[in-house]
């Protein structure tokens, strides 16, 4: 690693608020495979393995933080919230806030194709960074760093009602994958008018994918949509 590159990485450490014991890990986290191929580095010196590790660490840490912050939440809600936090677009936002694009090593062709602006490359670089910090430190330290980065996501979950708008998420997902719209149907209305419970189903392509209950049709539809997303294996990486 030359002196100029070292100075650049040290600058990023100050922005990150974490000093690496092994600065080469940080350099590897920012080394895209296109650059490694171009300069003749071994594939193992690119950030692919760190990205793989970082993805697993990120999912575990976010799960840990969600359970800590929302101990009474349902498992299905936690799963969907986690998928929102770790989806590609969310990680790309974090990368841009950290100005990761300034420190990435990309091949000339990738640079010419606007690689520093691609959400996929930025998200992968963030995962690689998480993997590098985890190797360099421990789970508690990386969890704190992730919390610092994602604090606004957690606070927004508490204050923005449309975060739990499962109907909108399901609509987008089903239209993209199945090219149809989900259909809701009231199955039953239970109880007196002043205390009625609605049971609603949601179907995709004629197949019932979720059934929800609530004190209003809207509440029942949201629960049905949440169940449908779980049954469809939605992980929001499309967003």
Inertia-based shape: elongated
> Beta-strand percentage?
5-15%
Task: Work out the helix count.
Answer: 11
Rounded Rg: 22 Å
Distance between the termini: 36 Å
Describe the structure.
A hairpin with a 2-residue loop joins strand 2 (197-204) and strand 3. It is elongated, with a radius of gyration of 22 Å. The longest helix has 22 residues, at 48-69. The chain contains eleven helices and three strands, in the order ααααααααααβββα. A three-stranded antiparallel beta sheet has the order 1-2-3, covered by helices on one side. By secondary structure, the protein is mainly alpha-helical. The chain has helices at residues 3-16, 23-29, 33-39, 48-69, 75-86, 88-97, 108-112, 119-136, 139-159, 166-177, 217-231; strands spanning 183-190, 197-204, 207-214. The protein is 60% helix and 10% strand.
Q: Summary?
A:
With 239 residues, the chain is mainly alpha-helical.
Any chance you could write out the topology, listing elements then pairs?
Elements: H1 3-16, H2 23-29, H3 33-39, H4 48-69, H5 75-86, H6 88-97, H7 108-112, H8 119-136, H9 139-159, H10 166-177, E1 183-190, E2 197-204, E3 207-214, H11 217-231
Antiparallel strand pairs: 1-2, 2-3
Helix pairs in contact: 2-8, 4-5, 4-8, 4-9, 5-11, 6-8, 10-11
Write a concise keyword list for the protein shown above:
single chain; 239 residues; mainly alpha; three-stranded antiparallel β-sheet; 3 strands; 60% helix; elongated
